[in-house]
Specification:
Order of helices and strands: HHHEHEEHE
Oligomer: single chain
Number of domains: 2
CATH architecture of the largest domain: 2-Layer Sandwich
Strand order of the largest sheet: 2-3-1-4
CATH class of the largest domain: Alpha Beta
Number of helices: 5
Structural class: alpha+beta
Largest sheet: 4 strands, antiparallel
Number of strands: 4
Helix content: 25-40%
Shape: elongated
Strand content: 15-25%
């Protein structure tokens, strides 16, 4: 990965709908070499997929919660079952396995408190869940949807 590849990745994070011709101009290449680099970056897994970032409130999401989950068992089958269940819950928009006093940190969205209560009811039904601690996001300071490219 060189300076041009990093520039391509940074540009795409700001505007995923940019045409190849405009991208090529921004990074100082002609369209054909730029298209080849872009294809290579996709094939090599640097670009996972393209998506639209939606404004939460405009699609009815008014609340964000950070949820700490502790499991009661740490056997492979328990972990696989819990993680499979999480992947089926659309309210979970980010999930991390973490170290420390709990096992998972989830970012959960909901239109309201009733929606969040319904979500926690689903969690309580999972036999592997021991502890649930919830933090309500009062206000989001910033969204950094652009990743720094260190390579």
């Amino acid at each position: 990965m060189d300076r041009i590849d990093r520039h391509i990745l940074a540009t795409l994070q700001h505007d995923g709908r940019i045409s190849t011709a405009d991208l090529a101009e921004k990074v100082g290449l002609s369209p054909s070499p730029c298209a080849r680099r872009l294809k290579r970056l996709e094939d090599d897994g640097f670009i996972q997929h393209y998506q639209a970032n939606l404004e939460k409130e405009k699609v009815g999401i008014n609340m964000t919660f950070f949820v700490e989950i502790g499991l009661n068992r740490h056997q492979e089958d328990t972990i696989e079952s819990f993680e499979s269940a999480l992947l089926e819950m659309p309210e979970v928009i980010n999930a991390h396995v973490v170290s420390g006093s709990f096992d998972y940190l989830l970012e959960v969205v909901s239109p309201n408190l009733q929606g969040y209560e319904a979500f926690t009811n689903k969690l309580h039904k999972l036999s592997s869940v021991k502890d649930i601690h919830t933090h309500l996001s009062v206000r989001q300071l910033a969204t950094k949807r652009v990743l720094p490219v260190y390579l």
